[in-house]
Amino acid sequence: QILDALRTALVGGDLLPGEVYSAPALAARFGVSPTPVREAMQQLAAEGAVEVVPNRGFRVARRSERDLAELAEVRALLEVPVLLR
């Protein structure tokens, strides 16, 4: 659940590219304990969405214009059919 919430925050721009976020701060923000946040952020790091910053937390990866265009295209492909139902 926290993984989905963090993905939504990343895609929605609630977590800003280049910013470093600590697991305790994100845990407080999302109302969960730091351990599941760390695990979720490790998963996002494996996917390339964030980078691990030793002793500080996680930095949101900066996206190129091409990455953002592809993301917008995928979102449109997924969201438009749902909205048309």
Can you describe what's shown?
The chain is mainly alpha-helical and 85 residues long. It has one domain: Arc Repressor Mutant, subunit A (Orthogonal Bundle). The protein is built from four helices and three strands, in the order H-E-H-H-E-E-H. It has helices at 2-11, 23-30, 34-47, 65-83; strands at residues 20-21, 50-53, 57-60. The protein has a three-stranded antiparallel β-sheet. A hairpin with a 3-residue loop joins strand 2 and strand 3 (57-60). 15% of the residues are buried.
Concise overview:
This protein is mainly alpha-helical and 85 residues long. The chain has a single domain (2-83), classed as Orthogonal Bundle (Arc Repressor Mutant, subunit A), CATH 1.10.10.
CATH class: Mainly Alpha
Radius of gyration over alpha carbons? Answer: 14 Å
Q: What CATH architecture label applies?
A: Orthogonal Bundle
Overall number of domains: 1
Strand order of the largest sheet: 1-3-2
**Proportion of strand residues:** 5-15%
Number of strands: 3
The rounded distance between the terminal residues' Cα atoms is 25 Å
Order of SSEs? HEHHEEH
- Principal-axes geometry comes out as globular
What portion of residues is helical? 55-70%
Work out the helix count.
4
Q: Going by CATH, what is the homologous superfamily?
A: Winged helix-like DNA-binding domain superfamily/Winged helix DNA-binding domain
Report the mean per-residue pLDDT as an integer: 91
**CATH topology type:** Arc Repressor Mutant, subunit A
Structural class: mainly alpha
The low-confidence runs, each spanning 5 or more residues with pLDDT under 50, are none
Largest sheet: 3 strands, antiparallel
